[in-house]
Design goal:
- The protein has helices spanning about 25-45, 60-75, 95-105, 120-130, 145-155; strands at about 5-10, 50-55, 80-85, 110, 135-140, 160-165.
- It has about 170 residues and is an alpha/beta fold.
- The chain has a 6-stranded parallel sheet with strand order 4-3-2-1-5-6, sandwiched between helices.
- Helix 1 (about 25-45) crosses helix 2, helix 2 packs parallel to helix 3 (about 95-105) and helix 4 runs parallel beside helix 5 (about 145-155).
Length: about 170
């Protein structure tokens, strides 16, 4: 089990809430990915070694790829895929499912919170992400949704929150 004090979780928007939707070649997306790397590296240099990712489409997968890249530079980095339910990616487009499974396979650990989907499984995942970290990186534009709820819970738990506006 990893130490909460040296762990960082991530929360962020899915493509529908991002200004560029699914167009990752958009310069704003490219810039966001660079910021994610720079922040993740700064968090690493502050002593964090374990990163947790909820593996949702959009920002989560960008973060996962960022941490894999960071781990290539710093081999003591570990990455945990926190999966809300076994069918998380079942209804995604084929190319998105392939990306998801490729990334999960590259994680050091996989934590599946439950087998079947339930209406609260995503919020259980978000609570797990907060409860197992001391800092959270958030791609968040201020709108209502799961990212906002995760940030509110993180504030209640006195986590350091590093916000990036998309």
């Amino acid at each position: 089990m990893t130490e909460r004090a040296t762990s960082c979780s991530f929360t962020g928007h899915r493509p529908i809430k991002l200004p560029w939707k699914n167009d990752e070649s958009d310069e704003r997306c490219v810039e966001l990915k660079k910021k994610l790397y720079d922040i993740a590296e700064a968090v690493y240099l502050s002593g964090v070694r374990h990163f947790l990712c909820g593996m949702a489409q959009g920002s989560d997968l960008y973060f996962c790829e960022t941490i894999i890249e960071l781990r290539n530079r710093y081999p003591d980095v570990t990455l945990e895929a926190v999966i809300p339910c076994e069918t998380q990616a079942a209804k995604w487009r084929e190319q998105d499912r392939e990306r998801y499974f490729r990334l999960v396979a590259q994680c050091d650990t996989e934590t599946m919170l439950q087998r079947e989907y339930t209406p609260d499984c995503m919020s259980k995942r978000n609570k797990y992400l907060v409860d197992h970290a001391s800092v959270i990186i958030a791609v968040y534009d201020g709108t209502f949704g799961g990212t906002m709820q995760t940030i509110m819970y993180a504030r209640q738990q006195d986590l350091e929150i590093i916000q990036i506006r998309p």
